[in-house]
């Protein structure tokens, strides 16, 4: 989703959503790609695993 959509969904300002996206990207939980004037964000396999409730001892993608 775009940064604007992320901001609306999280009920925060666009600059705040951008800062959050930067932190999530640094943690390899999302990937971001520019599309024209927009930045599109998507969940990485690691982020999806955490959202799906991976527990300690489970194999995590990208950590092998």
What would the keywords be for this entry?
3 helices; 44% helix; 2 strands; 64 residues; two-stranded antiparallel ribbon; 19% strand; alpha+beta
Structural account:
With about 60 residues, this protein is of the alpha+beta class. About 45% of the residues lie in helices and about 20% in strands. A two-stranded antiparallel sheet has the order 1-2. A hairpin with a 2-residue loop joins strand 1 and strand 2 (about 40-45). Helix 1 packs across helix 2. The longest helix is centred in the first third of the chain and has 13 residues, at about 15-25. It is elongated.
Q: What is the 3D form?
A: elongated
Order of helices and strands: HHEEH
In total, the number of strands is: 2
Structural class: alpha+beta
Query: Could you report the average pLDDT, rounded to the nearest whole number?
Result: 88
Q: How many alpha or pi helices?
A: 3
Described by strand count, sense and barrel closure, the largest sheet is: 2 strands, antiparallel
Roughly what fraction of the amino acids lie in strands?
15-25%
* Strand order in the largest sheet: 1-2
User: Approximately how much helix is present in the residues?
Assistant: 40-55%
| Uncertain residue segments | none
Radius of gyration: 13 Å
Distance between the termini: 28 Å
């Amino acid at each position: 989703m775009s940064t604007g959509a992320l901001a609306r969904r999280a009920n925060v300002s666009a600059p705040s959503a951008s800062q959050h996206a930067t932190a999530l990207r640094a943690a390899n939980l999302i990937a971001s790609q520019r599309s024209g004037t927009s930045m599109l964000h998507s969940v990485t396999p690691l982020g999806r695993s955490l959202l799906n409730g991976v527990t300690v001892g489970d194999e995590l993608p990208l950590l092998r």
